[in-house]
Amino acid sequence: MISKNDMAKLLDRRQPSFALEREFYTDPDIFRLDLEHIWYREWIFAGHLCELPKTGSYITLQIGEYPIMIVRDAKGTIRAMHNTCRHRGSKICKDAKGTSAKLVCPYHQWTYDLDGKLIFARQMGDNFDKTGYALAPVACEVVEGTIFICLAEHPSDFGRVRDQFAPYVLPHNLMDAKVAYENTIIEKGNWKLVWENNRECYHCAVNHPELCKSFPEAPTSLGVADGAIDDEVRELWSRCETAGLKAEFQIDPSGQFRATRVPLINGATSYTMDGLPAVSRAITDTRNVDNIGALLF
Fold first, then answer.
1. Backbone angles phi and psi of 182, in degrees to 5
2. Which residue among 109, 133, 139, 214 is least crowded, i.e. fewest CB within 10 A of its CB?
3. CA 45, CA 51: separation in Å to the nearest integer?
4. 156 backbone dihedrals φ, ψ, rounded to 5°
5. DSSP state, 52?
6. Which strand ranges, in their side-by-side order, compose the sheet holding 66-72?
7. pLDDT tens figures, 5-48
8. What is the separation, in whole angstroms, between the first and last Cα of the chain?
9. What pTM did the predictor assign?
10. Is 65 exposed, middle or buried (0-12, 13-18, 19+ CB in 10 A)?
11. What does the alpha-carbon distance between residue 21 and residue 2 come to, in Å, rounded to a whole number?
12. Order of all β-strands in the sheet with 111-112
């Protein structure tokens, strides 16, 4: 069994700019450590506020071994809870999304209010105290129309995420957005392979030619290549910042999150096949700036 110390030794011997060793993608013990030290501890983007439009709206997701539900309660508060009945552990909300006046376990009909409090449990005896059996809460934060959750018992301060993220996304009015289309992709591989692929565009020209019609594949276009930044990027940043639109590259000291705006290429103003807007109304406010590129976070 690979321990935390064993994993640390493997990390220490990795050459800079080289891939991780094979075990990081194939060993089940390392995957378990990934879950324990990353997925169960860090803040994770979980959805959009517009997916929960009314009282009782919910979405569900699975993080490692834990089924999670995110619900809008009767007061409009967005809550995240473990999607597990406190009686026998049955999953309560089985659909990916929906609306329900109460949260009812399908096994023995234990019933919870939208804030997670147990309000009905039949035949449990006179000494049974419902207040001790609320659904287990999950830390939840909403910032400018986006929802983040953290499974840790003592989550890290979300303030640093909020402070960096909010100025970039605020002008896009995500609070008033809606989901126009949704597609689920199941990747049959280790999560790190998916994430590493997402962090580079070295493969884009061959594998995503449609993307390269509008999105720059060069690292210097993303403002992250060891200080080398294209003139087009600097021009976009200057234009956006002058108009009050946050744009320059910023990264958290921990390396856990970053934000920037990058210019689109070939005169494109949108991620469409012809580079032209697909809708008449842009997802921005009325700031006086044209062609603001793409926001990366």
1. -140, 135
2. 109
3. 13
4. -70, 160
5. -
6. 44-48, 146-150, 137-143, 78-82, 66-72, 57-63, 97-99
7. 988 999 999 998 899 999 999 999 999 999 999 999 999 999 99
8. 36
9. 0.91
10. exposed
11. 13
12. 103-104, 111-112, 118-120
Average pLDDT, the chain: 90
Beta pairing class for 78-82 and 137-143: antiparallel
If you write DSSP's letter for every residue of 232-261 in order, what string do you get? HHHHHHHHHHHTT---S-EE-TTSS-EEEE
What the block records as the tokens of 13 is 């011997």
Name the residue with tokens 């490692």: 64
- Residues counted in the chain: 297
**Measuring CA to CA, which residue among 232, 245, 243 is closest to residue 295?**
245
CB 104 within 8 A of CB 93: no
Which tokens in the block code for residue 215? Answer: 């999105």
- 110-131 pLDDT tens trace: 999 999 999 999 999 989 999 9
How far is residue 280's CA from residue 293's CA, in Å, rounded to a whole number? 17
